[in-house]
Amino acid sequence: MLADGRFPAGGHAHSGGLEAAVAAGRVRDTDGLEAFLRGRLATTGATTAAFAAAACAAFDDGTAADGRGTAADGSGTAGGGDGTAADGRGRLGALDGEFEARTPSPALRATSRRLGRQMLRAARSVRPHPGLDALAGALPGGWHQPVALGAAARALGLGPGEAASAALHDAATGPATAAVRLLGLDPFAVHAVLAGLVPELDRLAVRAAGEADTPAARLPSYGAPLLDIAAELHATWEVRLFAS
pTM of this prediction? Predict the structure, then answer.
């Protein structure tokens, strides 16, 4: 359900950088789309998946549900930490701060927090959970999307591997769906591209799940500078089909 584009978490309004890539002529057909998706998955997709898996594991430990919190280095409870603070005292707070540092584009940081707020709102409506309520109220500006996704996944009974898979699925299907609308590509051909990515998606999900307990500062920091630059340019457009 979390990976379904119809889940009302706002993902359908975002192209994952594809709209800017199409406008720049970097993606014109299904071959270009596949190259774009592989690059995105290997960089920002892999980073997002690792953070979603780690957030899922942290939420499972009671970071948001029981108020104990976990130290940012994974060594145990954080003295005085409330578990949902964004000041680094709690595991989720540390993850949020580290993901912020891995997102150099202000436009993408704003998008991630917006999507995080929408994810928590949708998840709390679908499956009410006191931990999600506490998480939503702990950071008025909203949590970054992979942190919110990981927490929502755990609240729905999923594990880190499944949270990572949902993050990667979103990273691939969002731009792929946008490509159909932006370029008029054959939906069957686009889904054939997605089917061909399954082995890579599975590999990245397993790797991300294996990093679920890694200290926040040591989680992957795979970047895609061109996506960051394109996001800033895209944010200045007066007319656009997608929010990002």
Answer: 0.87
